[in-house]
Each structure stands twice: as C-alpha cells, then as structure tokens.
Amino acid sequence: MASYKINHLFWKYFHYFYSMKIVYFNDLKIEFDNHKRFDFLPDQQKILYPDLDRLVVDLMSNKFINDLALLSDDPEALFLMFCAHFKLLKAAGGLVRNADGKYLFIKRFERWDLPKGKAEEDELPFQTALREVEEETGVSLLSIVSVLPETWHIYHYHDENVLKLTYWFLMYSFGDEPLIPQINELITEAVWLSPQQSRQSLVSSYRSLRETFGELLV
Fold first, then answer.
1. Alpha-carbon dihedral of residues 191, 116, 163, 67, nearest 10 degrees?
2. Which end of the chain is less congested by CB atoms within 10 angstroms, N or C?
3. For 74, phi and psi rounded to 5 degrees?
4. Would residue 213 count as lying in a domain?
5. DSSP assignment, residue 127?
6. What's the total number of domains in the chain?
7. What 8-state DSSP symbol labels residue 135?
8. 3-state percent helix, strand, coil for the chain, nearest multiple of 5
9. Domain with 176 in it: what CATH number?
10. Domain that holds residue 100
C-alpha cells in the first residue's frame, strides 16, 4: 500500500514540476511562467519580460525579499537565457526508503538534507546518485524505483555565480548495515526517519526539498 501511495503521488506531481521551471536562491523561489498566467500568481513579485542582466545582479545582491515570477510568452527560452548567466554544475541524489518504511536523511551544516553530490566526468545521473548516497551514508544494496523531479538552485562560490541542477531518484535500500556519515564532507549524522519524522525534519531543511518532496513522504 505504501508503495502505491508513493507512485500515485509521484505521478500526481510529475506534470506540475516538469511543466514549469523553478529555481531556488536560499529560500527565495523563482518561477518561469507564461505571461498569460499573470493574474493567477498572487503571492509573488511578477516581472514581465525581465532584463536578465540587471535582474541577476540584483538577485545575487539580495535585493529581492519576495518570491519572483519571471513571465514571458516563451518561459522555456527565458529560462535558458537565465541559465546562461551562471556556471552550471550537475549533481544527483536520492530519496531512499527502507523495508521499515523509513527515509534516509543526513545532517550537514546543522540542517537536515538528503544525500546527494556532484557528478563525476562521464557519469550518468543515476550512477552519480547511487554512488553519492552510498559514499555519504554507508548504505548499500540500493535499487532505483523511479525518477523524481529535478531541483535547481543558485549560489555564489569562489567569485562565481553557480546554478546547480540536481537529479533525484526514489530508491529502495535492502541493506541493514549501520549508517556511516561521510565526515570529510562535513556530514555529522546519517539516520533513518519515519515518514512523520521526515516531514518534521523538512520544516527546518531547505525549501527546495520541502516543496519538492514533502508530499512524497508517506
């Protein structure tokens, strides 16, 4: 029954997350949408046909305090032009469930997170996800169940503005070995949490994870 719920919710939210692009900057959400939906986006600062050069400078200078909706008649093209202002990095990770119905979480920088990491050269996303989950937590015997929505977030690092694309996979773990947090990656805890504990942990986690995966933790 739990597996059915996960698959049902996955397909329920699949179209929403793949039909529009959402980028996070800290806890600020930036949506790319069609200008015809202008009146249906009440809780965001709406910018029609934005000047991206100016917007990115203002964004990285923390001049925006409200969520943004960047609107045009071709939101996909607008998103690609936005991406051109950043260095692109790719990563992958997993939402991992075990036989007890618990989910795998890590703690890094005093915030709960899901295991993930940067792709190595010539790796496919699912290969990166499997490798990083095992390296960061010590869990083994992993199986990929399905693809989950990707997440995008931007940050400033070493004088560069970075846009990170993270591919996510729903995974199942058949192992029962003790978890070992990857200390050299500043991970201080790796734990299995019940669905209720997982949802509570997301409250103090990153907004991108909370909004993307909160409904899947059943």
1. -30
2. N
3. -140, 80
4. no
5. H
6. 1
7. H
8. 35, 40, 25
9. 3.90.79.10
10. 93-146+169-206
Q: Is the pLDDT of residue 101 over 70?
A: yes
Are the C-beta atoms of 187 and 9 separated by less than 8 Å?
Answer: no
Residue written as token pair 């400033």: 156
CA 191, CA 139: separation in Å to the nearest integer?
A: 10
CA distance 95 to 45: 32
Domain-located, residue 134:
yes
| Tokens describing residue 117 | 């990491």
C-alpha 57/C-alpha 197 separation (Å) is 39
Q: Is 16 inside a domain boundary?
A: no
Terminal CA-CA length for the chain = 10
Q: Of all residues in the chain, what percent carry a pLDDT higher than 70? A: 90
- Please state, in angstroms and rounded to a whole number, the distance separating the CA atoms of residues 150 and 23: 10
Spatial CA neighbour of 74 closest among 50, 45, 40: 50
- β-partners of residue 105 are 191
The predicted-structure confidence for 11-62, as pLDDT tens digits, reads as follows 444 434 445 799 999 889 999 999 887 777 677 899 999 999 999 999 999 9
CA angle 9, 199, 150 (to 5 degrees): 50
Residue 39 burial (10 A CB sphere; 0-12, 13-18, 19+): exposed
Please, how many CA atoms are within 13 Å of residue 195, restricted to the half-sphere of its CB?
13
**Cut 0.85: pTM above it:** yes
Q: In 3D, which of 160, 133, 154 has the Cα closest to residue 145?
A: 133
